[in-house]
Specification:
Structural class: mainly beta
Oligomer: single chain
Number of helices: 1
Helix content: under 10%
Low-confidence stretches: none
Order of helices and strands: HEEEEEEEEEEEEEEEEEEE
Mean pLDDT: 93
């Protein structure tokens, strides 16, 4: 629903994506092929130091049902079946991993014009229960999430947040880590004509009184080229250059320098995503 508030997991997500999304300091390769019958295939490879890992993901869509199967380097098989509108404004997903017989999980999402509710329950004798909800509208929303481990009878998490969104900016305030961390994020589209956007994140930890901040920007040099920058109070500076060299196919270079670790070499990464 266009007027519904975003799920709790999306509070502060726009700023977080600008500051972190697509930054990669390893070698990464992705090949995606989509067929006309609703079947899609994606192969991922990642080389980190001298270790190479990868996975093959198959996605099949038919009507309101989506089946997602992934096999990784270690022969783990992850499966997720999603069905939308089994009830009005409801999405249900069932997922499990092989050989982990305790990994089964059922997720239910419900959207209302003034609320968004997500719930999750583990499909095992001592399940982990999770519930998140937001109320309000797409412009102003207030929400929270909670997790409960039935095996230990302990709360695994409880967080809260509020967000205020407009077409050209978004601000959010989150209380996370069981009330131990306060995080404020802000993103602003400075110039929509050339795609210039800035974002900031400020974090305060009550237990240690530690404060940190990160600033970032994104600028579209042309319709197919994006440049991002990121600076943090820890002395780290990062730069990203991304080029869409053909429709939906991207090549991305990333680099990061830590001024407080002058003896360490800067980190560089290359990511290639192909979609024929």
């Amino acid at each position: 629903m266009g007027s519904s508030p975003a799920p709790f997991s999306d509070i502060g997500k726009k700023a977080k994506d600008l500051l972190t999304k697509d930054y990669n300091f390893d070698q990464k390769f992705t090949l995606s092929v989509v067929g006309s019958t609703g079947l899609g295939l994606t192969a991922n490879g990642l080389k980190k130091d001298q270790i190479f890992v990868g996975d093959i993901n198959t996605l099949y869509k038919s009507g309101n049902i989506t089946v997602d199967v992934k096999v990784d380097t270690y022969s783990n098989v992850s499966t997720k079946v999603t069905q939308t509108d089994i009830l009005p404004n409801t999405k249900i997903a069932c997922s499990f991993k092989i050989p982990d017989h305790k990994s089964g999980k059922l997720d239910v999402q419900y959207l209302h014009p003034h609320a968004a509710i997500d719930s999750s329950i583990g499909l095992n004798p001592a399940p982990l229960l999770e519930l998140s909800a937001t109320i309000g509208s797409k412009d102003l929303s207030l929400g929270g999430e909670i997790g409960f481990d039935t095996a230990s009878s302990l709360l695994t998490k409880y967080n809260a947040g509020i967000s205020f969104n407009k077409p050209d900016f978004s601000a959010a305030l989150l209380l996370t880590d069981k009330g131990q961390t306060l995080k404020a994020t802000y993103i602003h589209a400075v110039d929509s004509a050339n795609g210039t956007t800035v974002a900031a994140e400020l974090t305060h930890r009550f237990s240690t009184l530690e404060k940190s901040f990160t600033l970032g920007s994104a600028h579209a040099i042309d319709p197919h080229t994006l440049v991002k920058t990121r600076f943090s109070d820890s002395g780290r500076a990062a730069l990203l250059w991304q080029r869409e060299w053909r429709p939906k196919s991207l090549i991305t270079f990333s680099g990061e320098y830590d001024s407080k670790a002058s003896s360490a070499a800067p980190k560089f990464g290359l990511s290639l995503a192909l979609k024929p």
